[in-house]
Amino acid sequence: MPRVQKLRLATLSAVCLFSVALAGPVFAAGGYGGGSDSGSETTPVCKKGSVYDRKSQKCVKQSGANLTDENLADYAYALAKAERYQDALDVLDTVKDQNSPVVLNYRGYATRKLGRLDEGIGYYLKSVAADPQYAQVREYLGEAYVLKGEIELAKAQLQAIKGLCGTTCEEYRDLDAAIGAAAKI
To answer: Which first-to-last residue range defines the signal peptide (predicted)?
Structure first.
């Protein structure tokens, strides 16, 4: 990889890490139905081998727990936001509906964060195919394209988000900022 491209990736990664740092403590918003990852409902992160059960509102042992796909997906996303990407993938492996747009999106997110960018994009594309109206996956797909230097593809996702929720939704603002940061590099 050329030195300039490595520098761009390093700078963009730093911008992304800074954005995550601003997001706050180790809590991630629930929201299996898609859309923004901000909201009033948060999912605490449990120790390895446990999963947060929203029904009982406590951490329970993952083995033998009778948790819904929605609960598992939300918890996997909380793990990913806490930078426990492999743990997130392990929880996603336990979800029954592996073709859920949300599960595919979260799998793409954790995989991308583990440095497997092309694999992550593959999951995002499957999620978009399953639910073209899912704005959050379009944001993450656009961010992955920015990391690859595919700015025109990222802009296409930005336009799709604009059609879904306008220019004031979090997904639009976040992807627009990532594209803008890449343009300054």
So the answer is: 1-28
Q: Which residues contact 150 (CB under 8 A, 6 or more apart)?
A: none
Instruction: Using the structure block, give the residue that is written with the tokens 């594209």.
Output: 179
- What pTM did the predictor assign? 0.72
Please report which confidence band the pLDDT of residue 47 belongs to, taking 50, 70 and 90 as the band edges: confident
Domain boundary assignment for the chain: 3-184
pLDDT at 21 over 70: no
Neighbours of 41 (CB within 10 A): 11
Angle at CA of residue 169, ends 172 and 69, nearest 5° = 95
What phi and psi, each to the nearest 5 degrees, are found at residue 173? Answer: -60, -45
- CA 143/CA 130 separation, integer angstroms: 19
Residues 6+ apart with CB under 8 A from 73: 32, 92, 95, 100, 102, 103, 106
Q: What are the residues facing 42 on neighbouring strands?
A: 29
Position 65 scores a pLDDT of: 63
Whole-angstrom Cα distance, residue 55 to residue 57? 5
Q: What is the third-level CATH fold of 3-184? A: 1.25.40
What is the tens place of the pLDDT at every residue in 83-101? Answer: 999 999 999 999 999 999 9
The tokens describing 167, both together, are 């220019």
- Phi first, then psi: give them for residue 51, nearest 5 degrees: -135, 145
